[in-house]
Specification:
This protein is mostly helical. The chain has one domain. It contains 10 helices and no strands. The chain is globular, with a radius of gyration of 21 Å.
């Protein structure tokens, strides 16, 4: 049957789904070996869901009914900048609040900040990439078997047939840089939450998040090749990694989990 979804496309989707799952699992295992606890990972995952998928979307649902949204959505520059601000504000605020409250007693081990980032970025990869690709694989197998699917019909099948297989791998490539960005920004916010003298790192994280998202959106709407966009995002991710390393080296102290958080903050302030 000529309209069958190619096996190469299905395999690419399955590989992308696997990569989306493997990223957080690998980071979790690595950071556990570094002494990070379980709680920060799951706190990061839940915080992303609450702040990005619930609260941010609720605000969007209200804004989309206003003239303001018509103005923003009609200009991709404004859309990129505003969308970047919304993502940055909600996600970095969620990070800050979670690290300041739920993870307050975990501040003695800085690797917990990295673990938070793994959970935050990891659950995003699972939800946006792995779940989507798994659904696409199930739909494709059902379509190829001639079985009607709850996940779509002829239009969805035709879209998959017409999409080059390598496009199914773009999401996996993008998620690697996205998780790197999330972990890097988590380092900034971690030390902002841990040390009041470094609180300025929190708004800086919002600004950097805004820039990354805005650049990606603006380039996408400008019709730039997808691999050039990914290259730009990877360049920004690398820059953020170097920034996070610099912040880590300046503020990291040896694990002092037995010490109360207030004492850890005082020690960090003394070294700043």
């Amino acid at each position: 049957m000529e309209t069958l979804i190619p096996n190469l496309t299905i395999n690419a989707m399955a590989l992308s789904a696997l990569i989306g799952l493997a990223i957080p699992v690998a980071l979790y295992i690595i950071l556990r070996k570094k002494g990070a606890k379980h709680l920060p990972f799951w706190t990061g995952a839940i915080t992303f869901i609450l702040f990005a998928l619930v609260l941010e979307q609720l605000v969007y649902s209200v804004l989309m009914k206003t003239p303001f949204w018509m103005t923003v959505s009609s200009n991709f520059w404004l859309l990129g900048i505003f969308g970047g601000f919304m993502a940055g504000f909600f996600e970095e605020t969620g990070r800050y609040i979670a690290m300041k409250t739920v993870l307050r007693k975990k501040q003695g081990n800085d690797y917990n900040g990295l673990m938070y980032g793994a959970g935050h970025g990891g659950i995003e990869a699972v939800i946006l990439l792995s779940v989507t690709m798994i659904i696409n694989v199930i739909f494709s197998l059902q379509t190829n078997a001639g079985v009607s699917s709850a996940f779509g019909g002829l239009d969805a099948a035709q879209a998959l047939i017409n999409t080059p297989f390598w496009m199914m791998l773009v999401g996996a490539v993008e998620r690697i840089s996205a998780v790197a960005i999330h972990v890097s920004l988590s380092v900034l916010v971690w030390f902002a939450a841990k040390n009041n003298a470094k609180v300025w790192l929190y708004p800086l994280a919002i600004l950097l998040h805004l820039i990354v998202d805005a650049v990606a959106v603006i380039l996408s709407y400008s019709g730039v090749n997808v691999w050039i966009i990914e290259g730009a995002v990877y360049a920004m991710a690398i820059a953020l990694i170097f920034l996070a390393i610099a912040v880590w080296k300046k503020n990291h102290v040896a694990s002092v989990e037995a010490v109360p958080a207030e004492d850890a903050v005082t020690e960090a302030e003394a070294q700043a």
